[in-house]
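Subject: sequence -> structure tokens, single chain

Hey, anyone have a minute? Need the predicted structure for the following. Not urgent.
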Amino acid sequence: MNSLTLPADAACALIGPPGSGKSTFARQHFQPTQIVSSDVCRALVADDERDQSATGDAFEVLHSIADKRLRRGLLTVIDATNLRGPDRPWLIGRARHWQRPLVAVLFDVPLAIVQAQNAGRARVVPSDVVSEFHALLPTVDQLRDEGWDTVNLASTIIRTGR
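Reply:
Had a minute. Here:
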């Protein structure tokens, strides 16, 4: 097991399906101000973090906050699935623009565990959606090929105090 040490100006993406432990991990390892959460942004624009119709607006807010933090050289942790479409390329582009190191934390959690954790959450995501997202998990090599400077597996990181 390893502890997680990030550069103070890093762009960090938590990558994994709903229910894989990203938000819990973020709260355990980072200051609240360092975390830019898609769920929180969705709640800000729609008063409901589960309102998927607000996702576009939520990501506009997330991108704005993340870009401003990166410009200022602040550790910026993106707490979202980071599994679809332009999610990772956007962050890679902005980190490169601001010359910030890129760190990925891949939540390499078996599907059965993710499904069990999801079932115990206050906001349960439909099982088929969790399976779809889990199927999109990249490999460490794929992430390195995308341009991530460092790729960490969440399963190998020990909890440390913030």
